[in-house]
Input
Amino acid sequence: MNLALDILTIVAVSLGAIFFLAGTVGLLRFPDTLTRLHALTKADNLGLGLVVLGLLPQVSAPLAALGLLAVWLLALLSGATVGQLLAGTASAPDQDRAETPARHAGASHD
Amino acid sequence: MDSSSLLVSPFTSLIELGGLLLVIPLMLPVIGLLLALMLGGRFLGRFMLLLLLLGLIAALAVATAVLTGGDALLYHLGGWAPPLGVALKADGLSAILLLVSAVVILAVGIYAQRDFRVPPGAPETRASLVFWMLLMGVWAGLNAAFLGQDLFTLFVALELLTFSAVPLVALDGRAETLAAALRYLLFALLGSVLYLLGAVLFYGTYATLDIALLAERIAGAPSLPPPIVAAAALMTVGLLAKTALFPLHLWLPPAHAGAPPAASAILSALVVKASFFLILRIWFDVLPGALNPMTAQILGALGAGAILFGNLIALRQARLKLLIAYSTVAQIGYLFLIFPLAASAESLALTGGMLQVVSHACAKAAMFMAAGLLAGTLGHDRIRDLGGSIRVLPITVLAFGLAGLSLIGIQPSGGYLTKTLLTAAVDGTGQWWWGLVMQAGGLLTAAYLFWVLGHALSGPPSGQVVARPGRAQELVVLALALAALLLGLLPPALFDLVGVGRAGLDASAAVSTAMAGAFGWSKLWGDVWPILVVGLLVLGMLPWPDRQANASERLAATTSSVTGHWAAALGAILERADRGLRKWPVAGLSLLVLALALAAAIATGS
Amino acid sequence: MTSALVVDAALALLVLGLALWVISTRAAYSAVVGFVAYGLLMAIVWVRLAAVDVAMTEAALGTGLTGLLLLGAAARLAPYEAAEVSSRPGRGLRMLIGLLCAAIALGLAAVVLMLPDPAPTLALLVAENLPPTGVGNPVTGVLLAHRAIDTLLESVVLIPALIGVWSVAADPAWGGRPGSLPRPQSGSALTLLAQVLPPFGILIGIHLVWNGADDPGGKFQGATVLAAMWILVLIAGLREPPAVRDQRLRVLLVIGALVFIGIGVAGIWLADAFLAYPEGYAKPLILAIEAVLTLSIALTLGLLLAGPPANDHRSGGRS
Amino acid sequence: MNGPTLFGLCGAALVGLGLYGLICQPGALRKILAFNLIGSGVFLLFGVIAKRGGGALSAAGLGVDGDPVPQALIITGLVVAFAATSIAVALLLRLAEISGRSTLERAGSGSHSPTHERAPAPERAA
Amino acid sequence: MTEFLLGAAAFVLGTVALGLIRLLRGPGHADRMLAAQLLGTGGVAALLLLGVATGVGAIVEVALLLALLAAFASVAFVSGIHRPDGLGTASGTEHAAPGSSDENKRDTP
Output
């Protein structure tokens, strides 16, 4: 039983870590802000979820387990909202105006 | 003893509180700060005045208790003894500073009633609420800094002081004063963070932040451990930045000159003294044995630089408030002469230093407030256009002059006594060069005071009167100036206060030896004639009424003929040097160099 | 323990890298974003240093509130930034300063290595003297009993800071509502977040204060979370910030410190010392102080972010 | 080398970096950031000292992990640093708003010099 | 198991650190913020792993706080990014200061 739980932990946490890696790769390789955003929000929420799932068998107190779940829910909620807000910024009709100073600053840096 | 019972009787019930008495000066301003926000409104100024009076009584009680008890008052907050808890202590030095702050802040409080009253019809104004609250904040920070015995509590006190002092600078909301306030804040924050770093290293080495315990443990160590060397250097430099000792004075002139007069008075008279006081605490209480000659000479040299440089630049100022601000830069320098002199003449040097703190606090507050009255009445503070202001504001100009006499160091002022004591210490240690610096400083001070007074006395009023000052304002300024001037006449027994709480420091004996024969006509003449010469020189450069028409050409001509081209050239060079030194990166560089130099000096000596 | 060391080394490198970024990047906005990330990492560092209370404060203050404050400032200052380059010190001066800073850092590093071993500590003394305070969290014990004066002064320090922020207001705007927060957004996502998150946040905040007596947490952490939730509601436009002249607001701002002082003064008679607690009543009194202080501190922190009073209507701009 | 020592060295480096930024970066906002970095480095050193103190005890089997006194002081310090940052930001924003600059020194001309006010003002020659 | 969890924490931290390259490259503020957000989530994951590995329960609360305030910081970012352009607000009067907000305008005077 214990062994099975440990294996579950190892598998889930490893999978979660891989999702984080995927998210990072997506962030680095995808061509524009919008696609990066979508890759990132999916990957990191899944990654965090898997890590939480993997850790659940390792905590004994039910309250601690609840805390873990709460962390994930919170991250999901804020991730979704922020994603939508950012997407709104990036795809707003006057996006060019919004992004101009940013682009300028970035370009002058690179 | 009759006299001592007379001294004690009004405060008997307070003195019986013992150490608990210290909680009153600590908490009274804090409560004032909190209540001020709650009450606000039109009558805030009156209410604050009441608190200031109570604070003065408490400070008097503390001083009386310390003096008559002959020992420092000690109190463990919450009943927890250090190292776990935090102690409050009032030794002689704290008592003196508590008292002088209470006096000066009360005077400023009276003065500010008029400047910061709420116009009829308005429920409250920004300037009024902000000024009174921050005045309380400054007072709370000062008292906490004077009483705290824990390095971290002192850090919080310093921050309280800084956060209260900085917005006062920008009270009028102009771009220049905002920039000055920001510059002050950032440099002061750099100072506090370095101070905190030092405190951290102290804790890492001895697991306590209590001054007495640290002193005990450090005295027990065979040599200064490296972290303590670093801590001493960092804390000293951090506090120097907050004290605005030359060459770290970049923030002081614009900040002190730009603030409203009542605020300038507090900033110049008291705020910079708090960080100086902590430097004293570190070198004389935490690390009493570690002040080696090289470190002391470095601090003394900076002080000497401040005296010469500050006074020379003051001489070149066109605006009265800036002149006074640079005079503060110079006067801070005297405080640092006590480090090299304390090596063999600790009681003389410390007593002289404390006298300088007190007399400069009174004199400088009086001068800034007098300048404020002049500016308020004439609508400007350009020195060249002060002509005839003596006829408009006789009391104010008189007060300005009297306060100036104390700065120059003429009998019987506090400044004179300071110089006498420091000179005695110079003679005792054989370090004649500091005596030379003091003499030069006195003459330069005389020069710019004559310059200002000459303008104020001569000529017809050159402008319209914008507003009349309040009679109470003029009188309070005069009172402060008189206090500075008459400080030297205090009974020598009162100087015992300096030595209370520090072993082997018999202040009044040293003082009375030094004072023997200090007062007298021949001595007075010996001091006065060089000043008169300087005065004549300056008066020769003034635009007298009959030549008013082409005064500036005359001035240029006299300047070049009397003092020669080289003086003007030197002035210009110094001014450029000052502008360079006060650039942020250069000041930062000076700070880094100083930190490293101090660390090296402390390390080689230990 | 090697993998623990790997974690530490990774953290230290990341922290340093981000600090380097914050110092060296050209645009202030990117530097601030880097600083927010830096704060996040510092929270993890504090956990690694067994300072969970500090980690919470860093997460709440360092990342959250400081992030909002600086991001807002960077956005508003962006138009003026281009002019900054011209007042940069010359290359030689910069190199000299860099060398001296490096010397100081190296000196400090050497000092760190020379700190006494075994390290002196007060941990044992605190542990011995914790029972009379009635609390189980030693950090809370130190903050509210052994060194109560620091905490008191520190909650007082926030008031002049707030007055300092308010003092830059234009005279006609005095008494009005703070106007530095971002204008309310009409986006539904933000409104939703501002409706859903605060209940969670308030719960967490209260939990932190309540639990802070015995477990990590306490008034600063709790107050910061409450302040953040309040600001969120304000940004979403669900509520208006209170006017500076509001009498109730002013009472609430100072009530925490006043209650603290009041209980401290009562201690003179009841427990023989200022800021001492009578035997057996220490814990309830500490909890009472923490509860009131949390309210005052949360309000103060929120208002520090909300900025100086502007003309009464927030979208009316200020002239 | 152990974790706390590593972080101690990191703290020293942060102080150095922050000092450089505070002195050399012209923008006031950057100076504020740099001040926060120095502060953070100092707190980190303090945290390392707390951890070392606790480590010595837990090695003795007392089950204490970290000296609570520095930890309490760090919390106080963090709040004070936040207050300092907020004042600085308020002053800076107002300065930029009314004068259009975000630096301490006037661009080009160096520090704000009192000599600018030295020019005599003859309009009062009555 | 402890070693595994610590190793996983180190891995996650390393990965998200890699993501910080996006912080360097930008090009827009939004991209930089994405990198910071990834760091936030990854940091929370690493914290949870560390907490369970070392058995300190309160670390979960730190993670909770971090998640909460990282969301808050992102909101701050999103609402802050509008401001130089006055986007999303009816009036841009606040920035009537010299040079307004437009890059091109600033060069002309």
Notes: Residues 16 and 96 of chain E are 40 Å apart (CA to CA).
